[in-house]
Amino acid sequence: MLSPVSAGGPILRCSNVRKSFGTNEVLRGISFEIPTGSVLTIIGASGSGKSTLLRCLNHLEQPTSGEVYLDGELMGLRIKPNGTRVPDKAANIGRMRAQIGMVFQQFNLWPHMTALQNVTEALVQVKGLGRAQAADAGRKTLAKVNLLEKADEYPARLSGGQQQRVAIARALAMAPKVMLFDEATSSLDPELTGEVLEVMRQLAHEGMTMVVVTHEMGFAREVSDRVIFLHEGHVDQDGTPEEVFVKPTSERCRRFLSSVLS
Amino acid sequence: MSETLRQSLDLSLFWEYRYTVLAGLAQNVYVFLASAALALVLALFVGLSRLSRHRVLRVLSTAYAELFRNTPEFVLLIWVYYVLPILISKLLAAKFSLSPFLAAVLALGVAYSGFLSETVRAGIQSIPHGHVEAGLSLGMSRFTILRRIVIPQAIRRMLPEALSQFVSLFKATSIVSLVAVPDIMYQVSMINVDQMRPLPLYTGAALLFCLVIIAATQSINILSDRWRKRGWA
Question: What is the predicted ipTM?
Answer without folding.
Answer: 0.93
